[in-house]
Design a protein that fits this description.
Helix content: 40-55%
Bound molecules: ligand LFPHGCPZ
Shape: rod-shaped
CATH class of the domain at 642-883: Alpha Beta
CATH topology of the domain at 642-883: TIM Barrel
Structural class: alpha+beta
Length: about 900
């Protein structure tokens, strides 16, 4: 899941956004602060300018007032001078004159004049008493002594009780000669000034003060907080003092008032040349009130902006949070769905899926696990894995260690146990499980039950090396065992024997009793041999009725006959299969390592050869391989390779053996017998090559040639006067199986023009028994052609009499093995007699083969046999010889009797 990354991403975006807004707000704040600071400076400057202007303006106004007063004083001084000049001052007139002037001066409430001695002599209005007190003051001496002293402002007189200051503007009065005549005073008080002062708008907590050059306040607006008018209070401001000390007559300062504690911007200015100074102060609070208002508005705007941006940020953050929450919910739902899907997949999986934590305890266990191992989920969760069988703990632990410590994914085949203790084969894939932090916290295992597959593999492996029927080792395995035995023999100076067994007449058992009886017999034989061989020896089935035993660790080959005797004894006891008592015998061939060969294939071939020699020797015996066998084998090989060429080169010829009627002594037929005129070996008899032709399949074209040649010869003879002669032709079982026999017979008859009734087809009993239905079908078709059928070598096989009926056979040929000893052997005689009786009862003709003397002939005649053949009459000869014999015989049928 990518959730942490999404969250981090969103977190980064929020932080970035918040930072941007913060920076924006800081910038706005800084701008606003700077702007406010600048505005404040402006306001301060404006206040300074304003105080300067106000003090200037007020000082001018006061100076104008002083000038008006001075004009009045000058006028009065002039009047006094004129009156002195005209005889002296008339007090009444002069007072009246002064009163006139006073009336024109609204800000003056008394005009008083002294004489040259300082006595207040004239005047009207208020404050006469103060004028007397002024005499002796510094200004007085100035005015008296300086004729040009101009307007002089007297020292203020403070009335502490009233809180008022009284002061006077004075001018020297002269006599006509210019000498000092007295002083004219215009009285004014702080109240007058306060009117002027209060006319100024100095704002809240502003101040307008008139003070003396000794820093004594003469008038102040507004009054002090305690109601005092402040006159007489001394200004203590060090800054003001310093400024005065520096000789400045005007300046603008910022200071905190020592009288009322208010901070102000103040400008002061000396009024003309008077000792009076005017001070205008605008309180910081006042001049900054607007600034503060603007600041407040700016602050409000800023905070509105800030709040707005914070709101936007919060909204954006919340929105992001909501979206993130939604996304998380979506992701969680997707995770839940995925988990649910995983749960369903895991639980419905046909594969066993379980998980274990780091300590090896089971943390998950699906239904397939329950089915596969037999433990329910509730039983195993939180417990160690119960499926590890005893002895496999270390293996399981090693897997777990590799996954957890080396982070390996393991796929392996293991054996585990079910609840009932049975073992099952599994293919397991194991991989580490990690938590959200990426740490390994356990592992997952997915297991499939491969017990059946493993069993099948084992079975395939077994079958690859064993025979399916008997479960004995097969040729592959026995070869391996031989190699091991040979290697051991090399080291120890020992011998190894390959003993090749072939069951005698097994084919007949198979054919007569069926394959299942044959199979059961082979199983039983295998079992007996198995129980007889030593542990170090190996018995195997080579196929069919062939067995091979590897006898290991032989010190001497002399021991082998006694070992074979042991086997023979074991096999001599009859077998009981499916209700049949089956006595068996074996033909055995033996080849020795290293004497006869150094490899398995060579020795097997030689043991096989030796086995055939045992067969040739009459079966139920054994033969050791000798080199002569090899020579014979080579002959056979040459025969095999020469057979095909023989047909192409026309090396075959037919010899004919006469068949005699016992009743007439006349030749009634001829058995066609093939011969091979080999370019080097001369005339080769069929016993040497027919079985090879059968093995190779060449018997089919060879048999076709025989049929055609026999028919051709039969017709030729018939045309030459050998009439009514039956030509008997031997058929091989291969011709039934591989060839289109009926078609071949028809062709032979058609091509030759032979009378089908003169063609006799000889079949051995084994031909009849193999593939019965197929052979029956073929034979019925052949019979339909009107050809005759005879059973060759009758009495040697396992044929059933019922077949004889079904086959519609014409003749039984009694095998020569019964015939040749007929005279001496009562058993043979009995057999021959029985066959003749059976044939008679079935209305079949009998023919006895192998009549070698006249006694046999006589005995057969006496027994009622119909026909006979044998060397007593004639050996098989070529067509020319046969014809000669025939002609000779026909003329004197009883010649040999
Ligand atoms: N499928 C085919 N089989 C054929 C053909 N030609 C011959 N054969 C079979 O080969 C076997 C050997 O035959 P052969 O060497 O020719 O021997 C035959 C006779 O010579 C021999 N015989 C006849 N009379 C006597 C006798 O008095 N004593 C004695 N020891 N041998 C004798 O018997 C052979 C004929 O036997 P049978 O066929 O059973 O009648 C042999 O099995 C032939 O069948 C062929 O063309 N096709």
């Amino acid at each position: 899941m990518q959730l942490p990354n999404l969250s981090r991403l969103r977190g980064n975006m929020v932080v970035r956004m918040a930072l941007s807004l913060l920076i924006l707000n800081v910038a706005i704040f800084a701008l606003a602060a700077f702007s406010l600071y600048e505005t404040r400076i402006q306001y301060e400057r404006r206040a300074e300018v304003e105080t300067r202007n106000l003090v200037q303006s007020l000082a001018s106004k006061i100076q104008a007032d002083f000038h008006t007063i001075d004009l009045a004083l000058l006028t009065i001084a002039d009047e006094a001078e004129r009156q002195y000049d005209t005889g002296g001052i008339d007090k009444a007139v002069f007072d009246a004159f002064i009163e006139q002037q006073l009336a024109r001066l609204p800000k003056v409430d008394g005009l008083w004049a002294t004489d040259a001695d300082g006595r207040v002599a004239y005047g009207v209005g208020l404050a006469r008493e103060y004028v007397a007190a002024l005499v002796g003051d510094g200004h007085y001496a100035l005015l008296r002594n300086d004729a040009n002293s101009g307007l002089v402002v007297s020292k203020a007189i403070i009335d502490p009780e009233k809180g008022q200051a009284q002061f006077f503007l004075a001018r020297r009065m002269n006599y006509l000669d210019g000498t000092f005549a007295g002083i004219i005073y215009a009285h004014t008080g702080s109240a007058q000034f306060i009117k002027n002062l209060s006319a100024l708008d100095v704002g809240s907590k502003g101040v307008v003060s008139l003070f003396n050059d000794d820093f004594t306040i003469l008038a102040r607006y507004p009054a002090l907080a305690d109601g005092n008018r402040a006159a007489g209070v001394r200004i203590a401001s060090p800054l003001l003092h310093e400024t005065f000390a520096a000789g400045k007559s005007n300046a603008t300062l910022r200071s905190v008032s020592d009288t009322d504690g208010v901070e102000r911007v103040v400008s002061f200015r000396q009024i003309g040349d008077t000792p009076l100074n005017l001070l205008v102060g605008i309180s910081t609070e006042s001049y900054l009130a607007r600034w503060k208002k603007e600041s407040a508005i700016t602050s409000v705007i800023f905070f509105v902006v800030l709040s707005f941006s914070l709101s936007i940020l919060m909204y954006w953050g919340l929105r992001k949070q909501m979206l993130a929450k939604k996304k998380i919910e979506q992701v969680n739902r997707a995770i839940d769905a995925e988990n649910e899907m995983n749960r369903i997949i895991v639980h419905s999986s046909p594969l066993a899926i379980y998980t274990r934590d780091k300590n090896g305890l089971v943390t998950a266990w699906n239904q397939a696990c329950e089915r596969m191992f037999g433990w329910a989920e509730a039983e195993v969760i939180g417990t160690p894995l119960p499926t590890v069988p005893p002895g496999k703990e270390d293996e399981s632990e090693e897997f777990r260690r590799q996954i957890l410590e080396r982070d390996r994914t393991i796929q392996t085949e293991v054996q585990r146990q079910r609840r009932d203790g049975t073992l099952i084969d599994l293919i397991v894939t194991m991989a580490a499980l990690r938590n959200a932090a990426g740490e390994i916290e356990g592992y997952l295992a997915i297991a499939a039950d491969i017990t059946e597959r493993k069993a099948a593999e084992k079975r395939v492996e077994f079958l690859a090396h064993h025979d399916t029927l008997t479960e004995l080792p097969n040729r592959l395995l026995v070869r391996d065992r031989f190699n091991q035995a040979a290697a051991y023999a090399d080291r120890e100076g020992k011998k190894v024997a390959l003993v090749f067994f072939d069951l005698d007449h097994f084919k007949a058992i198979n054919d007569s009793l069926g394959h299942s009886v044959g199979d059961d017999l082979l199983i039983e034989i295998a079992s007996r041999l198995k129980s007889t061989v030593r542990l170090i020896d190996t018995i195997s089935r080579q196929g069919g009725d062939e067995f091979l035993i590897v006898l290991s660790n032989l010190s001497d080959a002399d021991i082998i006959p006694s070992i074979l005797g042991k086997y023979k004894k074991k096999l001599q006891e009859p077998f009981y299969i499916d209700g049949n008592e089956l006595p068996i015998s074996m033909s055995i061939g033996v080849a020795l390592y290293p004497d006869d060969g150094m490899d398995f294939d060579t020795l097997l071939k030689k043991a096989d050869m030796a086995m055939y020699r045992a067969k040739d020797a009459g079966r139920n015996t054994y033969r050791f391989f000798d080199e002569q066998m090899n020579v014979e084998a080579m002959d056979q090989l040459l025969i095999r390779s020469g057979l095909r060429r023989a047909l192409e080169r026309g090396e075959f010829e037919l010899h004919y053996e006469p068949q005699i009627s016992l009743a007439t002594g006349k030749i009634v037929g001829a058995e066609a017998l093939i011969r091979w005129r080999h370019p080097e070996q001369g005339l080769v008899h069929p016993a040497k090559f027919i079985h090879i032709a059968e093995e190779s399949g060449l018997i089919v074209p060879i048999g076709e040639w025989v049929l055609k040649e026999a028919c051709r010869q039969g017709v030729e003879w018939a045309e030459q006067g050998l009439e009514g002669l039956t030509i008997a032709v031997n058929l091989s079982v291969m011709q039934f199986r591989r060839g289109d026999l009926e078609k071949t017979v028809i062709q032979a008859l058609d091509e030759s023009g032979m009378d089908p009734r003169l063609l006799e087809l000889e079949l051995t009993e084994s031909v009849l028994i193999q593939d019965v239905e197929n052979v029956l079908g073929s034979m019925h078709e052949l019979k339909a052609l009107d050809v005759k059928l005879s059973i060759d070598d009758f009495g040697t096989g396992y044929s059933s009499l019922s077949y004889l009926k079904r086959l519609d056979v014409d003749k039984l040929k009694i095998d020569k093995s019964f015939v040749c000893d007929l005279v001496r052997d009562a058993d043979d005689r009995a057999i021959v007699n029985a066959i003749i009786q059976i044939a008679r009862s079935l209305n079949l003709t009998t023919l006895a083969e192998g009549v070698e003397d006249v006694k046999i002939y006589a005995a057969l005649k006496e027994m009622g046999c119909d026909e006979c053949q044998g060397f007593y009459f004639s050996r098989p000869g070529n067509a020319k010889n046969f014809k000669a014999y025939y002609l000779d015989r026909q003329d004197n049928p009883l010649k040999m009797m």
